[in-house]
Amino acid sequence: MLDKSLMQQLTAIDGVELDPAATFADLTTLRVGGKPQAALRCSQPEAAVDVIRALDRAGVKFIVVGGGSNLLVADGAVDLVAVILDFDEVSMDTETGVVRAQAGAVWDDVVARSVQLGLGGIECLSGIPGTVGAVPVQNVGAYGAEISEVLIRVRLYNRRTDSDEWVPASDLELAYRYSNLKFTGRAVVLEVELQLDTEGLSRPLRFGQLTQNPGERRPVAEVREQVLSLRRGKGMVLDPTDHDTWSAGSFFTNPVVDSALADAVQAKVRASLGDATADSMPRHPASPSDTDREKLSAAWLIDRAGFAKGYPGSGRATLSTKHTLALTNRGEATAADIVDLARTIRDGVREAFGVELVPEPVWIGLALDE
Ligand SMILES: Cc1cc2nc3c(=O)[nH]c(=O)nc-3n(C[C@H](O)[C@H](O)[C@H](O)COP(=O)(O)OP(=O)(O)OC[C@H]3O[C@@H](n4cnc5c(N)ncnc54)[C@H](O)[C@@H]3O)c2cc1C
């Protein structure tokens, strides 16, 4: 429990409410995790800044929780405070294409509204769960697009300098599923500014499942529908009635390796699974700016290491029955069950192919290595 006088100080801040019943199982899409020391809901950016400043001064650990869709938190009593950002104002200028959204806005609502207004640039990021504030944290991406392509500025509360300021996106060092906010918590995103296109068309499409004709641009609403339909087929759109979506999305990032390791992996696949399988192994340049390294497919490696969709077939935690990259809670799972499954998958892929899978979600109070 938090010190009583600190709790009084926090709940006296204008725009702050205590959520006494909240557990991490309630706050996350994996629906596992125990109880924080306190859960504080902030209805204004200024309230969030005051709360975080007070927690920092008191030396109390905390985590900002958005939609909880990229979080794996330990069972039992969790030794930190959950700070939830509920402010969610959004403005869209259809003349200039500038979109501003506060951290607590639901990301997919922002995408839906921008598409409705004919603004292009985030249609491929349709259906990603969570809030606006978390989108820069891991430079969210899907179907060949990343938020880094349209993110102009971010309003941050910088904990070190105690300042609330707009900074250019370049300050975040955005890369594949990475920013310098992820795992560091050095600053809190209060608001973002995006520059979208105003012609009603998507950004040039690159992803094979979306186009036969790379580089083409299509009406944004059409692309959003196609993305949502592809995502639903993989259990990648939240649906409370479908346990395949009780997940953190992709549980492991796609391994980025040098070409020598990619060759070695392919040779191991050839030796154990034959030429046809080895020849179909996905190998892509790590990114347009990093052509020296290659990105392998974590889902493909998991599957070829012997972990089929739904593995192990029954139990409280299994792989999704629609996608090998999602670890899912079948209803009664604990965080420990998810971690056990993650270890089995990580170890199996390492043993089969010599590739080290790295988890994508942020882990609190748990570690993949015992
Ligand atoms: C079904 C499913 C599909 C998914 N598909 C994708 C996908 O296609 N692409 C993709 O990139 N991700 C995907 N994800 C992962 C996840 O949805 C994204 O990473 C999302 O941006 C997380 O948002 P959130 O609000 O839920 O963040 P949370 O899970 O609440 O938080 C994640 C991390 O961000 C930090 N954080 C949250 N808000 C802030 C803030 N305002 N300021 C500073 N730090 C903050 C948290 O402290 C934590 O460290 C998927 C997840 C699920 C469950």
From TrEMBL:
Q: Its pathway? A: Cell wall biogenesis; peptidoglycan biosynthesis
Chief place where the protein resides: cytoplasm
Q: Which cofactors?
A: FAD
Query: Where's the FAD-binding PCMH-type domain?
Result: 32-199
- Tell me the Gene Ontology biological-process terms attached to this UniProt entry: cell division; cell wall organization; peptidoglycan biosynthetic process; regulation of cell shape
Where does it reside?
Answer: Cytoplasm
Q: Which GO terms describe its molecular function?
A: FAD binding; UDP-N-acetylmuramate dehydrogenase activity
Write down the chemical reaction(s) this protein catalyses: UDP-N-acetyl-alpha-D-muramate + NADP(+) = UDP-N-acetyl-3-O-(1-carboxyvinyl)-alpha-D-glucosamine + NADPH + H(+)
* Residue numbers spanned by region Disordered: 275-294
Q: Which NCBIfam families does the UniProt record give? A: murB (TIGR00179), PRK13903.1 (NF010478)
Q: Say what the protein does.
A: Cell wall formation.
Protein's UniProt name: UDP-N-acetylenolpyruvoylglucosamine reductase
Which species expresses this protein natively? Corynebacterium curieae
